[in-house]
Amino acid sequence: MESFSSKDMAMQAQKKILSHMANKSVVHMFIDDTSSEILDELYRVSKEYSGNRSEAQKVVKDLIKIAVKIGVLFRHNRFNPEELSLAQDFKKKLHQGAMTAISFYEVEFTFDKTVMSEILTGCRDLLLKLVDSHLTPKSHGRIKHVFNHYSDPELLTKLYNPDGPFKPNLTKICTGLNRLLEEGTL
């Protein structure tokens, strides 16, 4: 017997369409201004660090696609109770990461690349478990691409260098993270 569900079909169509529209104008429809500003700074850091504009665009585009797809899954109540528990664990880990990032920024000489890298790697692993049965291997690759890029200890060290070129970017990223924390968004 064929199992057809228009609700499933609509969700798949949304995920597919949204993944093809991950550009700046569409992002503003789904992501608030503060998050968009953080994404812009992450792009600038990635572009400067890698020296490769297209790689920086790909990392941020992958990040946006993943965020949108997970949002679609949540909106369609696709996660079971165990997965919702994983989602809460992910949210806590992400919150911890934001707090740690801000703390390292505000208190000079406290930055520890291992701690920051481990938090981001932990976020990656929780997110992969959460979407394991919902997203394709290609999407799993996107998650790994994003988190592996931003958890790179060398990138983190350059980002947190108090005399480095990324100081203005880090300031804007942490200001945005602080705003998201205050609003309860993160």
From TrEMBL:
What is the top-level taxon of the source organism? Answer: Eukaryota
* GO-annotated biological processes: innate immune response; regulation of apoptotic process
List the keywords (alphabetical): Immunity, Innate immunity
Q: What does the entry list under GO cellular component? A: cytoplasm
InterPro entries in alphabetical order: TNFAIP8-like, TNFAIP8_sf
Nucleus as a keyword? no
Name the Pfam families on file: TNFAIP8
User: Looking at the keywords, is Transmembrane helix present?
Assistant: no
- Family of this protein: Belongs to the TNFAIP8 family. TNFAIP8L2 subfamily.
Q: Per its record, how is this protein called by name?
A: Tumor necrosis factor, alpha-induced protein 8-like protein 2 B
